[in-house]
Structures are given as C-alpha cells and as structure tokens.
Amino acid sequence: MADATATDELKTLESQGLSELQASSDEAALRAWNTKYFGDKGLMKAALSGIGKVPKDQRAAFGQEANRVKVALTEAYDAALSAAKEKALAASLTASPLDVTLPGRPRTRGRLHPATQVLRQITAVFADMGFQVYRSREVETDQYNFEFLNMPEHHPARDMWDTFFTTTPGVVLRTHTSPGQIHVMRESAPNPVRVILPGMCYRNEAISTRSEIQFYQVEGLVIGEGVTMADLKGTITAFAHRLFGPERKVRIRSSYFPFTEPSIEVDIDWPADDPNRDRLTKGTGWLEIMGAGMVHPTVLRHGGYDPDKVTGFAFGMGPQRMLMLKHAIDDIRLFWQNDQRFLRQF
Ligand code: FA5
Prior knowledge:
The chain has helices at 4-23, 27-38, 43-48, 59-95, 114-128, 142-145, 179-188, 229-244, 277-280, 297-302, 319-327, 340-343; strands at 132-133, 139-141, 171-173, 193-202, 214-224, 250-257, 260-269, 286-295, 311-317. By secondary structure, it is α+β, with helices and mostly antiparallel strands. The structure holds adenosine-5'-[phenylalaninyl-phosphate].
C-alpha cells in the first residue's frame, strides 16, 4: 500500500477534477480548468511533489497511481473539449443557417467595348493588306503634334485642333494620331513603311452628338518609291468596302491639311432608311470618316526621308464615327457613358 495521505490526496484530486470538469460548460471554462490542473503551477504538479513524503519502498506504487490519475483526467478533458467544440459549431449553424442547396450567384461575363471591337476589325482589315500596327504616345510635344507636321508656331492651321495643354510648357495631349507618323518615319528611314497607328486622341471641343473630347483615331502611313494618290484611293475604298460592305458608297472630296499635299476627306453614305439621317449628316446624307492625302515633302524630310526619292500617303480616321455609321448609332456620347443598355448590344 502506498502512503495513505499522499494517495488519498491523489484520489481527492481526481474526483474533484472530474466534477469540476463536468461543471465547465464551454471551451473557455475547460481551458481554464486545464491550466488549473495541468499548468506550471497546477494542482497535478503540486500533488506529484508530495512524493517526497512517501516512504521509498512505496514510491513506485504512488507513481503508478499518480500516472493513472493524470491519464484519467487528461482523457476526460480531451473528451469534454471536443464535445464543447461540437456543441459550439452546432449552435452557430442553427443561429445562422446555411442552405447549401441554394443556387450560386451567377457571374456576369464582360465583353470587349464596342470601340475596342471596331479597332480590332479595322486592324484585321489592314493586316490583310500587309499593314503593321505601331503604338505611339498619347502625350506629345508641341514639336511632334504640330511643328514636324508642317505647322510652325503661330501657323493658323493649328486652330483646326482645339488643344489640351499640360502645365509643362511645350507638352500637349495629342489632338490626332498624326505625330505618330514622325516617330515611325524616324525609326524606319530610309526603308519603306506600311503601318497603322491606332490610339486615343484629345480635343478641347464642345461635346455634341458627333464630337467627343476623347476619341479614337487610326492613322495610316505608307512610304516607298512610286507611291501615288491612286494607291491611297484604292486602299481606302477597299478598306471601306471590307468594313461596311460593297454596297456602301464612298465619297472623296478635296480638302486641306498642312501635312499632306494634296489633301482629301472621305465620307460614307448614311443609311437612307434611318430617321436620324438628316440630323447626323447635317442634311447631306454623308458622314466624314477620315482625312488623308499625300505626305507633304517637308514632313518626309522631318521624318528623315528624301522626298526626291520616295513618296507616301497618310490617312487619319475616326473608328467611333465608323461604328456609328455601321449601326446607325445617333450619339457619339454613348461610347463613354458606360450605360450597360448600350454596351450590351455589341
Ligand atoms: C485629323 O485629325 C488629321 N490628323 C487626319 C489626317 C491624317 C489627315 C493623315 C491627313 C493625313 P480630322 O480633324 O478631320 O483630321 O480628324 C480625323 C477623323 O477623326 C475625323 O474624320 C473623325 O472621324 C474623327 N474625329 C475628329 N474629331 C473627333 C471628335 N471630336 N470626336 C470623334 N471623332 C472625331
């Protein structure tokens, strides 16, 4: 028999521990119980230190008993703890029930913006004609936007483009994609060039059904030996028929741009059955889609080419105006209003 007092103390500890465990109703209480009994300064440790009072020949039996009590309490604690956790989980599930049979929230799928779609269509048509795509910057210097395009300072033609100036002198938001022509030429001279330059342009204009302050343009530039106005007409007509269908009429008028000589403008007939035809075409039945012409010798020189050896043509079109023509859209402002009812139709 082990020492009566020390062993009794162990037994009391066991029954006291078990009944306190039963009274601990939640996880926090159980953890507090665990600290009280098995912590560094816990009752179990204190009881074990009683071994000093036990006569030597009874110490092994005391040790066995102590171990039994320790295992019994630990197992009871583990069981109580997992029961408490289950109970808490069940309670939280009833408090906020989760119906796993409910259908999920459908994810709305996005699509390409109509302006992006038409840019891609235009790119595809020109790619078939052997044009490469060149990306050019939207923030330009005055030199590139005007000067190199044959519009020196104070040239009246600058008034054709209402410009957004930045706070940095000489730096503007490009008013057209034409400054990209100079970048391409300077990178390519003296080799032949056949590129399109799509991108955003900015103009400080009054916003109307036909004009935005921010819009896309697609510039085109072809340079080589013996390039003529006939090549320009042929390219533009082939392009317009590919994009709009062979039945649509293309009209070419003479015009003026400082960076082309001669210069032209290209119109397309507006669908005759559209009730908005007169309002949008100012009664003419035609909507302008691009400016174009033969690259001015001065511009060729600024680009690093010898105008005695090569010639070139250039054009600048408005893809949004073209999309308006294609689908009889009567207001260009719809493009940037982010109205889903408009965007979803494309
Ligand atoms: C130009 O910007 C010339 N750089 C085009 C050019 C390039 C001529 C190369 C010769 C050689 P214009 O200002 O006409 O030209 O604009 C060209 C096209 O951009 C217009 O036909 C129109 O389709 C579109 N566009 C112009 N302003 C706006 C605007 N405010 N909103 C929407 N589209 C516009």
